[in-house]
Amino acid sequence: MIELQDVVVAYDTRVILDHINLTIPDGETLVILGGSGSGKSTLLRLLIGLQRPTSGKIFVDGTEITSLNEEEFNKVRLKMGMVFQYSALFDSMTVGENVAFGLNQHSYKSKDEIKAIVAERLDWVGLGGYEDYMPSELSGGMKKRVSLARAIAQDAKFILYDEPSSGLDPITSGTISMLIKGMQSRLGCTSIVVTHDMQSAFYVADRIALLDKGRFIEVSSAEEFKHSTNKKVQQFINGKAEELTISARGV
Ligand SMILES: Nc1ncnc2c1ncn2[C@@H]1O[C@H](COP(=O)(O)OP(=O)(O)OP(=O)(O)O)[C@@H](O)[C@H]1O
Protein backbone atom coordinates (compact mmCIF):
# COMPACT_ATOMS: atom_id res chain seq x y z
CA MET A 1 0.00 0.00 0.00
CA ILE A 2 1.12 3.56 -0.69
CA GLU A 3 -0.12 6.37 1.50
CA LEU A 4 0.46 10.10 1.19
CA GLN A 5 -0.33 12.13 4.29
CA ASP A 6 -0.62 15.87 4.08
CA VAL A 7 2.09 16.13 1.43
CA VAL A 8 3.24 19.58 0.36
CA VAL A 9 5.73 20.45 -2.37
CA ALA A 10 6.59 24.11 -2.70
CA TYR A 11 9.26 26.08 -4.51
CA ASP A 12 9.73 29.28 -2.53
CA THR A 13 6.18 30.68 -2.28
CA ARG A 14 4.92 28.57 -5.18
CA VAL A 15 2.91 25.59 -3.91
CA ILE A 16 2.78 22.70 -6.38
CA LEU A 17 1.21 20.01 -4.18
CA ASP A 18 -1.01 21.46 -1.49
CA HIS A 19 -1.61 19.10 1.48
CA ILE A 20 -2.26 16.00 -0.61
CA ASN A 21 -3.79 12.91 1.00
CA LEU A 22 -4.13 9.67 -0.94
CA THR A 23 -4.16 5.93 -0.23
CA ILE A 24 -3.41 3.46 -3.01
CA PRO A 25 -4.26 -0.10 -1.95
CA ASP A 26 -2.26 -3.12 -3.13
CA GLY A 27 -3.16 -4.37 -6.58
CA GLU A 28 -4.86 -1.16 -7.69
CA THR A 29 -4.19 0.66 -10.94
CA LEU A 30 -4.56 4.36 -10.23
CA VAL A 31 -4.47 6.86 -13.07
CA ILE A 32 -3.42 10.41 -12.27
CA LEU A 33 -4.70 13.14 -14.54
CA GLY A 34 -4.03 16.84 -14.42
CA GLY A 35 -3.24 19.83 -16.59
CA SER A 36 0.29 20.45 -17.77
CA GLY A 37 2.44 21.55 -14.84
CA SER A 38 -0.09 20.42 -12.23
CA GLY A 39 2.49 18.28 -10.39
CA LYS A 40 1.90 14.77 -11.72
CA SER A 41 5.55 14.00 -12.43
CA THR A 42 6.49 15.63 -9.13
CA LEU A 43 4.25 13.11 -7.39
CA LEU A 44 5.99 10.20 -9.14
CA ARG A 45 9.40 11.66 -8.27
CA LEU A 46 8.37 11.78 -4.60
CA LEU A 47 7.40 8.12 -4.68
CA ILE A 48 10.69 6.90 -6.17
CA GLY A 49 12.70 9.15 -3.89
CA LEU A 50 14.10 11.48 -6.54
CA GLN A 51 12.59 14.35 -4.58
CA ARG A 52 11.51 14.94 -1.00
CA PRO A 53 8.34 16.78 -0.04
CA THR A 54 8.53 20.15 1.66
CA SER A 55 6.37 18.59 4.38
CA GLY A 56 4.13 15.57 4.96
CA LYS A 57 4.69 11.85 5.05
CA ILE A 58 4.74 9.10 2.45
CA PHE A 59 4.39 5.44 3.41
CA VAL A 60 5.35 2.60 1.06
CA ASP A 61 4.39 -0.80 2.43
CA GLY A 62 4.27 0.74 5.90
CA THR A 63 7.73 2.35 5.70
CA GLU A 64 7.81 6.13 6.00
CA ILE A 65 10.15 7.04 3.13
CA THR A 66 10.67 10.77 3.43
CA SER A 67 13.10 10.44 6.33
CA LEU A 68 15.15 7.54 4.90
CA ASN A 69 18.76 8.01 3.88
CA GLU A 70 19.86 6.96 0.39
CA GLU A 71 20.99 3.49 1.46
CA GLU A 72 17.74 2.79 3.30
CA PHE A 73 15.72 4.15 0.43
CA ASN A 74 17.46 1.85 -2.07
CA LYS A 75 15.81 -1.11 -0.33
CA VAL A 76 12.38 0.46 -0.86
CA ARG A 77 13.28 1.38 -4.44
CA LEU A 78 13.83 -2.31 -5.25
CA LYS A 79 10.08 -2.73 -4.91
CA MET A 80 9.48 -0.08 -7.57
CA GLY A 81 9.76 -0.04 -11.31
CA MET A 82 9.48 3.16 -13.29
CA VAL A 83 8.62 3.57 -16.94
CA PHE A 84 9.88 7.04 -17.84
CA GLN A 85 8.17 9.37 -20.28
CA TYR A 86 10.96 9.15 -22.86
CA SER A 87 11.83 5.53 -22.06
CA ALA A 88 15.23 6.63 -20.66
CA LEU A 89 17.12 3.69 -22.11
CA PHE A 90 20.92 3.69 -22.14
CA ASP A 91 21.71 4.22 -25.83
CA SER A 92 25.13 2.62 -25.61
CA MET A 93 23.76 -0.63 -24.16
CA THR A 94 21.88 -3.39 -25.94
CA VAL A 95 18.23 -4.04 -25.17
CA GLY A 96 19.25 -7.04 -23.05
CA GLU A 97 21.79 -4.99 -21.07
CA ASN A 98 19.19 -2.30 -20.47
CA VAL A 99 16.68 -4.79 -19.09
CA ALA A 100 19.38 -6.46 -16.97
CA PHE A 101 20.71 -3.16 -15.59
CA GLY A 102 18.91 -3.19 -12.24
CA LEU A 103 19.45 -6.91 -11.77
CA ASN A 104 23.20 -6.50 -12.32
CA GLN A 105 23.29 -3.62 -9.83
CA HIS A 106 21.07 -4.91 -7.05
CA SER A 107 20.70 -8.67 -7.16
CA TYR A 108 23.00 -11.58 -6.49
CA LYS A 109 21.71 -13.69 -9.36
CA SER A 110 24.07 -15.61 -11.65
CA LYS A 111 24.64 -14.49 -15.25
CA ASP A 112 22.53 -17.38 -16.53
CA GLU A 113 19.66 -16.54 -14.18
CA ILE A 114 19.76 -12.89 -15.27
CA LYS A 115 19.83 -13.95 -18.93
CA ALA A 116 16.75 -16.12 -18.38
CA ILE A 117 14.87 -13.33 -16.59
CA VAL A 118 15.72 -10.83 -19.35
CA ALA A 119 14.51 -13.27 -22.03
CA GLU A 120 11.28 -13.89 -20.12
CA ARG A 121 10.51 -10.21 -19.48
CA LEU A 122 11.20 -9.30 -23.12
CA ASP A 123 8.86 -12.10 -24.11
CA TRP A 124 6.16 -10.69 -21.79
CA VAL A 125 6.28 -7.35 -23.59
CA GLY A 126 6.28 -8.98 -27.04
CA LEU A 127 9.97 -8.45 -27.75
CA GLY A 128 11.29 -11.97 -27.28
CA GLY A 129 14.65 -12.38 -29.04
CA TYR A 130 15.47 -8.63 -29.18
CA GLU A 131 18.28 -8.83 -26.58
CA ASP A 132 21.06 -7.86 -29.01
CA TYR A 133 19.32 -4.91 -30.65
CA MET A 134 20.44 -1.38 -29.82
CA PRO A 135 17.80 1.17 -28.69
CA SER A 136 18.50 3.24 -31.83
CA GLU A 137 17.19 0.35 -33.92
CA LEU A 138 13.79 0.39 -32.18
CA SER A 139 10.61 2.40 -32.70
CA GLY A 140 9.24 4.63 -29.92
CA GLY A 141 6.66 2.01 -28.96
CA MET A 142 9.31 -0.72 -28.80
CA LYS A 143 11.49 1.47 -26.58
CA LYS A 144 8.55 1.94 -24.21
CA ARG A 145 8.14 -1.84 -24.09
CA VAL A 146 11.85 -2.32 -23.30
CA SER A 147 11.47 0.30 -20.57
CA LEU A 148 8.54 -1.71 -19.17
CA ALA A 149 10.54 -4.96 -19.35
CA ARG A 150 13.30 -3.21 -17.36
CA ALA A 151 10.79 -1.90 -14.81
CA ILE A 152 9.46 -5.41 -14.14
CA ALA A 153 12.83 -7.21 -14.28
CA GLN A 154 13.04 -7.24 -10.49
CA ASP A 155 9.45 -8.32 -9.75
CA ALA A 156 8.55 -4.78 -8.77
CA LYS A 157 5.53 -4.56 -6.52
CA PHE A 158 4.80 -0.99 -7.59
CA ILE A 159 5.07 0.14 -11.20
CA LEU A 160 5.00 3.85 -11.98
CA TYR A 161 4.31 5.02 -15.51
CA ASP A 162 5.05 8.60 -16.56
CA GLU A 163 2.96 9.31 -19.67
CA PRO A 164 3.44 5.85 -21.20
CA SER A 165 1.64 6.72 -24.43
CA SER A 166 3.15 10.13 -25.10
CA GLY A 167 4.57 10.42 -28.60
CA LEU A 168 2.94 7.18 -29.76
CA ASP A 169 0.28 6.66 -32.42
CA PRO A 170 -3.16 5.51 -31.20
CA ILE A 171 -2.61 1.86 -32.13
CA THR A 172 0.76 1.65 -30.39
CA SER A 173 -0.74 3.49 -27.39
CA GLY A 174 -3.45 0.85 -27.29
CA THR A 175 -0.79 -1.88 -27.21
CA ILE A 176 0.95 -0.16 -24.30
CA SER A 177 -2.37 0.14 -22.44
CA MET A 178 -2.95 -3.58 -22.94
CA LEU A 179 0.52 -4.31 -21.58
CA ILE A 180 -0.13 -2.15 -18.50
CA LYS A 181 -3.30 -4.09 -17.83
CA GLY A 182 -1.54 -7.37 -18.61
CA MET A 183 1.26 -6.64 -16.12
CA GLN A 184 -1.29 -5.89 -13.45
CA SER A 185 -3.00 -9.26 -13.87
CA ARG A 186 0.28 -11.19 -14.38
CA LEU A 187 2.18 -9.69 -11.44
CA GLY A 188 -0.67 -8.48 -9.21
CA CYS A 189 1.32 -5.26 -8.90
CA THR A 190 0.10 -1.82 -7.88
CA SER A 191 0.32 0.61 -10.78
CA ILE A 192 0.30 4.39 -10.87
CA VAL A 193 -0.15 5.78 -14.34
CA VAL A 194 0.27 9.46 -15.19
CA THR A 195 -1.29 10.13 -18.55
CA HIS A 196 -3.08 12.64 -20.75
CA ASP A 197 -4.61 9.85 -22.81
CA MET A 198 -8.24 9.52 -21.70
CA GLN A 199 -8.86 6.37 -23.71
CA SER A 200 -5.94 4.66 -22.00
CA ALA A 201 -7.01 6.07 -18.62
CA PHE A 202 -10.47 4.54 -18.82
CA TYR A 203 -9.05 1.27 -20.13
CA VAL A 204 -6.41 0.66 -17.45
CA ALA A 205 -7.76 2.44 -14.36
CA ASP A 206 -9.45 1.03 -11.31
CA ARG A 207 -9.57 4.59 -9.98
CA ILE A 208 -8.81 7.95 -11.53
CA ALA A 209 -7.53 10.97 -9.62
CA LEU A 210 -7.60 14.50 -11.05
CA LEU A 211 -5.05 17.04 -9.82
CA ASP A 212 -6.00 20.71 -9.97
CA LYS A 213 -4.53 23.69 -8.11
CA GLY A 214 -2.30 21.35 -6.13
CA ARG A 215 -5.12 19.15 -4.83
CA PHE A 216 -7.03 16.09 -5.93
CA ILE A 217 -10.43 17.45 -6.85
CA GLU A 218 -11.82 14.03 -7.76
CA VAL A 219 -10.69 10.51 -6.87
CA SER A 220 -13.18 7.90 -8.00
CA SER A 221 -13.65 4.66 -9.90
CA ALA A 222 -13.22 4.94 -13.67
CA GLU A 223 -16.98 4.57 -14.12
CA GLU A 224 -17.84 7.19 -11.48
CA PHE A 225 -15.22 9.52 -12.94
CA LYS A 226 -16.76 9.24 -16.39
CA HIS A 227 -20.14 10.28 -15.01
CA SER A 228 -18.89 12.80 -12.45
CA THR A 229 -20.92 15.96 -12.16
CA ASN A 230 -17.78 17.94 -11.35
CA LYS A 231 -17.50 20.51 -14.13
CA LYS A 232 -13.72 20.37 -14.22
CA VAL A 233 -13.75 16.59 -14.58
CA GLN A 234 -16.07 16.85 -17.56
CA GLN A 235 -13.92 19.63 -19.05
CA PHE A 236 -10.92 17.38 -18.72
CA ILE A 237 -12.64 14.35 -20.25
CA ASN A 238 -13.89 16.46 -23.14
CA GLY A 239 -10.50 18.00 -23.84
CA LYS A 240 -11.19 21.42 -22.39
CA ALA A 241 -8.47 21.25 -19.80
CA GLU A 242 -7.36 24.85 -20.31
CA GLU A 243 -9.55 25.96 -17.44
CA LEU A 244 -7.60 23.76 -15.06
CA THR A 245 -5.04 26.12 -13.70
CA ILE A 246 -1.47 25.09 -14.02
CA SER A 247 -0.45 25.05 -10.42
CA ALA A 248 -1.54 25.94 -6.96
CA ARG A 249 -1.46 28.95 -4.71
CA GLY A 250 1.22 31.56 -5.01
CA VAL A 251 1.44 31.77 -8.82
N1 LIG B 1 13.12 22.40 -9.51
C1 LIG B 1 12.02 23.16 -9.71
N2 LIG B 1 12.01 24.45 -9.35
C2 LIG B 1 10.92 25.23 -9.51
N3 LIG B 1 9.76 24.77 -10.05
C3 LIG B 1 9.72 23.49 -10.44
C4 LIG B 1 10.84 22.62 -10.30
N4 LIG B 1 10.48 21.39 -10.76
C5 LIG B 1 9.21 21.50 -11.18
N5 LIG B 1 8.76 22.76 -10.99
C6 LIG B 1 7.40 23.27 -11.29
O1 LIG B 1 6.47 22.38 -10.70
C7 LIG B 1 5.30 22.31 -11.50
C8 LIG B 1 4.90 20.85 -11.66
O2 LIG B 1 5.82 20.17 -12.51
P1 LIG B 1 5.55 18.68 -12.98
O3 LIG B 1 6.65 18.31 -13.91
O4 LIG B 1 5.33 17.82 -11.80
O5 LIG B 1 4.18 18.84 -13.78
P2 LIG B 1 3.35 17.80 -14.64
O6 LIG B 1 1.96 17.82 -14.13
O7 LIG B 1 4.04 16.48 -14.68
O8 LIG B 1 3.39 18.48 -16.08
P3 LIG B 1 3.37 17.87 -17.57
O9 LIG B 1 2.02 17.24 -17.76
O10 LIG B 1 3.55 19.09 -18.43
O11 LIG B 1 4.51 16.89 -17.67
C9 LIG B 1 5.61 23.01 -12.82
O12 LIG B 1 4.95 24.26 -12.82
C10 LIG B 1 7.10 23.20 -12.80
O13 LIG B 1 7.46 24.40 -13.42
Automatic annotation (TrEMBL):
<keyword id="KW-0067">ATP-binding</keyword>
<dbReference type="InterPro" id="IPR017871">
    <property type="entry name" value="ABC_transporter-like_CS"/>
</dbReference>
<dbReference type="InterPro" id="IPR003593">
    <property type="entry name" value="AAA+_ATPase"/>
</dbReference>
<dbReference type="Pfam" id="PF00005">
    <property type="entry name" value="ABC_tran"/>
</dbReference>
<keyword id="KW-0547">Nucleotide-binding</keyword>
<dbReference type="InterPro" id="IPR027417">
    <property type="entry name" value="P-loop_NTPase"/>
</dbReference>
<feature type="domain" description="ABC transporter">
    <location>
        <begin position="2"/>
        <end position="238"/>
    </location>
</feature>
<keyword id="KW-0813">Transport</keyword>
<protein>
    <submittedName>
        <fullName>ABC transporter ATP-binding protein</fullName>
    </submittedName>
</protein>
<dbReference type="GO" id="GO:0005524">
    <property type="term" value="F:ATP binding"/>
</dbReference>
<dbReference type="InterPro" id="IPR003439">
    <property type="entry name" value="ABC_transporter-like_ATP-bd"/>
</dbReference>
